[in-house]
Amino acid sequence: MKHQEFANIAIELRDVMLSIGREFFGNEEDAKDVAQEGLLTLCKYMEQLDVDKNHRPLAIRVAKHCCIDMVRKRKKQIPMVRNYIGDYAPPNLRMGTSPQEELENKEWRLAMYEAVRHLNETERKVFEMRQLQGISLDEISSSVHIAKSSAKSMISAARKKIFEELKQKMKS
């Protein structure tokens, strides 16, 4: 397949990959990243592609692999909870004056970080937007492309999961 022939089918393949990305991640930004990575991958092999073949199944497979690769990369990076966790620390842990208090503060922050990290990608994003960045529900729902009520439910569920995990950590 020549470059021009690939360019002609790339528009259709991009739409397929965007759809897979939206379905997998639930937001437009990640879907665009999936489509871009997928098309770059296909572009590397365009000379080996047959012009007369249906490339839709291949595009779907490549997009799914891109989604999985993106999740794996994110897990390796483990994004920090942007130093906002300290704002949610109990008052007795904010200003650690003794070594014991500072150790407790560090343990609390680590437990909070781990609890947030265990949320799924969308829950974490919505939780951070609301709790840590103070973004309104209207802005969150338009940014993540979900209903306001869904955003509110996700935030509530995320809080509950974090609370339960922290409760379990405190017991042990």
Number of separate strands = 0
What count of structural domains?
A: 2
Weakly predicted, low-confidence segments: 78-96
Task: List the total number of helices.
Answer: 8
Query: Could you give me the name of the CATH homologous superfamily of the largest domain?
Result: Winged helix-like DNA-binding domain superfamily/Winged helix DNA-binding domain
Share of residues in helices: over 70%
Structural class given helices, strands, pairing? Answer: mainly alpha
Mean of residue pLDDT values: 81
CATH class of the largest domain: Mainly Alpha
Biggest sheet layout = none
The fraction of residues in strands falls at under 5%
The CATH architecture of the largest domain can be given as Orthogonal Bundle
Taking Cα atoms only, what radius of gyration do you get, to the nearest Å? 21 Å
| Head-to-tail CA distance between termini | 61 Å
CATH topology of the largest domain: Arc Repressor Mutant, subunit A
Shape annotation: elongated
Task: Give the SSE order as H and E letters.
Answer: HHHHHHHH
